[in-house]
C-alpha cells in the first residue's frame, strides 16, 4: 500500500462522519426551540439527536426511606420528560434518539457524557428569555467552562418560533 493509498483510506468525507446533536432536556419553554433546532440540523446533515437529563439527588437525609422515595419520583419524572422529548425527536426526524439519564449535578454529568461519548459532535442548549437570564447551564458553558468542552455549543434563543427555526436551518 502506498502512502497516498493509506492517506485516502484514513480520510473520511463529511457524509461518513456521524454527527450527533446532544440536547439538554428540561421542562423549560425554551427547550422546545432547542429541540426543533437540533432535529432540523440533524436531519439536514444526516446526523442524529441524543437527549440528556440529569436528576439531582434528593437532599433529604432525615429518613432514608423518604429520600429514596423522592429519588424514585424524581427519576420517574425525568424518564417521562425524556420520553416526551424522544417522541418529538422521532416525529421530527424519523429516528429514535439516544438517551442519557444521569444522577448528579447537571453540569458535571453533562461534561462526563460529552467526554465519554465521542460520537457527540455538537451540544444544543435553549436560552431562557426571562429577566433572570439564559439559565445556569448556558451561563456556565458560555462562560467559565467554555474552554473545557471539546465541541461546539449552539445556544438557541427560546423566543424563536418554529418558522424562524425552519428558516435558519
Describe the structure.
The longest helix is centred in the middle third of the chain and has 30 residues, at 64-93. This protein is of the alpha/beta class. It has a five-stranded parallel beta sheet with strand order 3-2-1-4-5, with helices on both faces. The protein has a single domain, classed as Rossmann fold (3-Layer(aba) Sandwich). The chain contains six helices and five strands; from the N terminus they run αβαβαβαβαβα. The radius of gyration is 18 Å and the shape is globular. Helix 2 (30-44) packs across helix 3 (64-93). The protein has helices spanning 3-10, 30-44, 64-93, 106-116, 136-142, 162-168; strands spanning 20-24, 48-55, 98-103, 120-127, 153-157.
Classify the fold: give the CATH topology: Rossmann fold
Instruction: Output the structural class.
Output: alpha/beta
What overall geometry do the principal axes of the alpha carbons give?
A: globular
Mean pLDDT comes to: 84
- The second-level CATH architecture is 3-Layer(aba) Sandwich
What is the ordering of alpha helices and beta strands? HEHEHEHEHEH
The domain count comes to: 1
Q: Would you count the extended β strands for me?
A: 5
Please indicate the percent range of residues in DSSP E strands (runs of 2 or more). 15-25%
Low-confidence parts lasting 5 or more residues at pLDDT below 50?
A: 4-15
What would CATH call the homologous superfamily? HUPs
Strands side by side in the biggest sheet: 3-2-1-4-5
Radius of gyration: 18 Å
For the biggest sheet, the summary is: 5 strands, parallel
CATH class assignment: Alpha Beta
Per DSSP, the total helix count is 6
Our measurement of the CA-to-CA distance between the termini, rounded to an integer number of angstroms, reads 42 Å
Helix content bin: 40-55%
